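A reminder from the course coordinator: this example appears on the midterm review sheet, so study it carefully.

Given structure:
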């Protein structure tokens, strides 16, 4: 009797495990950007191009492995963006651009497409990884956005360690700031924000964006990146979006939300929604930049109206792509 019970038990367990395996596993995907602007092949040395490509690859690899190991899209977005923030190559975290008074003020935001929870920080000066603080605002405060001094007091309460503002200094950004001041180059020429959108095994989307803003921005200026709906948006019913470009235009066109709304209300595909928003709405009012967008089925779109945009993805087929120029 006992033997029979054991056999039946074993058989049921086997059946259960087989059924579990038979469940079609949700495929994961991830897409990132490292800013859009006048990025032309002739202006980028082969060495620098290699550095950009390998940093984008490193960030994508980490993010994708979090997803394949069953981690959440939020975890993937935060870890991926933190790697780009720590690199001096991008205008986010280390490598952030200069404000008009010679400092660095950082903005970041994150959104969870399942719950529509969101968190953002603006104008923070001493937080090494603003994306981590944005997530903490989302998860540990009743608010969506904290700015400046208040955001830093909150960070202290949450156990964040601080860096001095000159931690963000890089020679390259300093020289570029000088050029802008001297009128040798247009303010809107180069961007360099970082962003990530991920789809996890549970079918949840998350999006995040982090930036130093625009070179020589007036101190206190806040761009689109920390504004939910402008620089970042994620909704499991449509897609996740992270933007980069001349923030004032992205705010006025509510670019990230508009892409999601076009999908949900007009039944557009992620690619037509994103492309029509960048090449139509944004371009019409004179804005420059681009977005990355990823829908709940893993479809990816990366339109921009500048010469280039640092960007990369790992699709649902597991294949990685890293692109910089328009012609890539
Ligand atoms: N969108 C950012 C801002 O306006 C800048 C960028 O994407 O490069 O602050």
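Designed residues:
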């Amino acid at each position: 009797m006992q033997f029979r019970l054991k056999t039946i038990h074993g058989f049921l367990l086997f059946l259960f495990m087989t059924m579990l395996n038979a469940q079609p596993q949700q495929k994961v995907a991830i897409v990132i950007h490292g800013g859009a602007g006048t990025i032309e092949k002739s202006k980028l040395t082969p060495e620098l191009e290699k550095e950009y490509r390998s940093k984008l690859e490193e960030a994508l690899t980490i993010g994708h492995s979090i997803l394949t190991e069953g981690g959440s899209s939020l975890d993937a977005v935060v870890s991926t963006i933190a790697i780009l923030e720590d690199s001096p190559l991008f205008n986010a975290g280390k490598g952030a651009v200069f404000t008009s008074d010679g400092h660095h003020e950082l903005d970041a935001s994150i959104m969870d497409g399942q719950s529509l929870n969101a968190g953002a920080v603006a104008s923070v000066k001493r937080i090494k990884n603003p994306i981590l603080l944005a997530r903490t605002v989302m998860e540990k405060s009743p608010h969506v956005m904290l700015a400046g001094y208040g955001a830093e007091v909150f960070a202290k309460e949450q156990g964040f360690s601080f860096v001095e503002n000159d931690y963000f200094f890089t020679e390259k950004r300093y020289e570029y700031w000088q050029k802008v001041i001297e009128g040798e180059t247009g303010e809107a020429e180069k961007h360099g924000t970082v962003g990530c959108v991920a789809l996890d095994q549970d079918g949840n989307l998350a999006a995040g964006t982090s930036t130093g803003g625009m070179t020589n921005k007036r101190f206190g200026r806040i761009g689109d990146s920390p504004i939910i709906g402008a620089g970042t948006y994620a909704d499991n019913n449509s897609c996740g979006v992270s933007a980069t470009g001349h923030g004032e235009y992205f705010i006025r066109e509510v670019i990230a939300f508009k892409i999601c709304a076009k999908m949900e209300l007009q039944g557009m595909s992620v690619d037509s929604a994103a492309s029509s928003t960048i090449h139509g709405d944004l371009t019409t009012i004179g804005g420059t930049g681009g977005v990355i967008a990823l829908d709940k089925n893993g479809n990816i779109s990366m339109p921009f109206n500048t010469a280039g945009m640092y960007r990369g993805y790992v699709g649902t087929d597991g294949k990685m792509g890293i692109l910089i120029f328009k012609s890539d």
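DSSP finds nine helices and twelve strands in the chain. Residues 35, 91, 191-193, 211, 213-214, 223-225, 244-247 surround aspartic acid (CB under 6 Å).
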